[in-house]
């Protein structure tokens, strides 16, 4: 199992399935009928006041439900399935069987399809979107599906041997509280393995839109959701009570025909922006300018454009007295100064 403090893996590419392109005037927004049905911000949570609760969780539920009801939702699941597989690989790195596991923000079950019943005997999937759970991908593991908010887990303390989460926690308003909830429902010596989007996700799209708005409208508004910095992640997990932490980063690059296909797939993933301060509509001229800037600044030689998704992977354990502990300070029997002598003796032995 990976135990380094912070490691970076090389960027990997991911093929985007061919999808029918269509004109889209919204970035990370719902279709007109669904957007009109979304509730207004509650009192005290106007678009300009989202410091404590930056995301509209009710809107996020609508977005995920809408995406799950599309005729072919699997067409936009390629990124979630890839990351779900990498989470499963980290589960397999731990050589034990987990009698009961929890998948927080499971969506359609992107982790479960890669796991086996020899590793996880029973799984509970939790998500805010009931349609995603109804259309979940079947797996060989006995599964119970529960509609609940990731911020308020409806389970007793010390319940699960394993908690996993893939590409869901970046939409949580109170991430420290969510980590504490996960820590609480874990049994002692239980492990949490998760993945969430990092701060460099979609930087190409963000820069292109900002430059286009500055040029055409004289200013810009946020169109891409705020993300957690990797430097904060270990601290938040430690504050929640986790130990033996591992945080590593990965980047997945997906090539698209153009900017509009990027936005179309984000919408199909249920990854539309749900920030209170979002700007739901963009002018046609601004969108066309952004597409041209995207192509000019980042375009590939074959005419496609890349979209980079930065992924933070995290592993944390709940304390148990049986876990290995660091040695007492001053208990070493060999000093670092003796290492050079050992190296010299080894060189002499080779001669």
UniProtKB/TrEMBL annotation:
Cellular compartments per GO CC: mitochondrion
Keywords: Methyltransferase, Mitochondrion, Oxidoreductase, Transferase, Transit peptide
Subcellular location: Mitochondrion
UniProt GO molecular function: oxidoreductase activity; S-adenosylmethionine-dependent methyltransferase activity
Pfam families reported in the protein's UniProt record: Methyltransf_11 (PF08241)
Residue ranges of every copy of the Methyltransferase type domain listed in the record: 102-193
Name the record gives this protein: Arginine-hydroxylase NDUFAF5, mitochondrial
The encoding gene: NDUFAF5
